[in-house]
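Two proteins, back to back. First:
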Amino acid sequence: MAVQKIHRFHALKPGSQIWFMPEKKRSYWTKLVDWYLNFQICKYNQKDPIESDGEIAKIVTEEEIQFDFKLSNPKNLMISSNGYLPTKAVIILTQKSLTDQIDDIQNYIKTLNLETIRVFLPSDATSSDFIKNWPSKKDIKISLVEDITGVS
């Protein structure tokens, strides 16, 4: 695992396949990126979540469709960013704890077969917190960007 802390001047430059970001209220960077993505994060947060009554799971089971419901947290938001930002997609992580976010990031790495990622840390976490909690020894390049404190 190669971890590189990126200075804020280089945070929005190319170099990673996917960007992982905390919720908008927990990061200055997410607020900034939302502008570049035509406020899709803001629009998503204004919608009421759809509650599943199990109907989809029932149809998948009856039709014997191969589908893994545990790919990721359904509350996370993945936005294609081609043409808007220098990355393929931005994933907004809604978990509150850093360890839960790390678990979800690892699931995405495995599912999407990622080699390079950029993680924008929430305002209450540091790069040393992330490195201490990152259990993977997998060959992946991780760029870490700490939040800009004191900016709202």
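And the second protein:
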Amino acid sequence: MSTQRLTLYRWRRDRIGLAACLRDCFSGQRLMGWCQTPRHLFLLGWDGAAVLDWTGKALEGPDPLGQVYEARFFHSGGDPDGELRWLRDPETDGFGRAAWVSETDRWAPRGFETADVLSDLEPLDALATPGGTIPNRILIQARAELPGIPPGEPAVYRIREYMGPAPEPAGDHGNWIVVEQRILGIRPLNGGGANE
């Protein structure tokens, strides 16, 4: 393993709806990410004041995120660098738990409280294979919804995984596991892109 070590800072907020979380906690911030409903998985943007579809048009209606049960938004460039995660609590009427994960503690979303810090982590941005080193990424089927990706072209989420000591008893023997993962951007499978 390499000698580079990172700390991953985490914040959380309970009992908040996704739309309220974006509006109240990420005002002025630009995010991009995916949302999952019982019927669809789709890409959305947040321009700091409104939820946008993949064409950049503001979503309309009283509750355009009302059916979302899981969402992951990454910062679409610049500071702050991090990822917002939101998961609906099925026991409530639209409320869920939100978390912000970042390699820096310079910025935290409004109203979030500090959660546990993961330290002594090794970032994994590339995978060594017999054919060479490849970037760490997850293949996704390209659709018109992916900004900067030509329709029909395969695309990938660029990800960073964080390796850390395994829990006891395996960790007592020096074993390491992937303890966290973060989305860094979206790009065409065979080239760069605006959301790298």
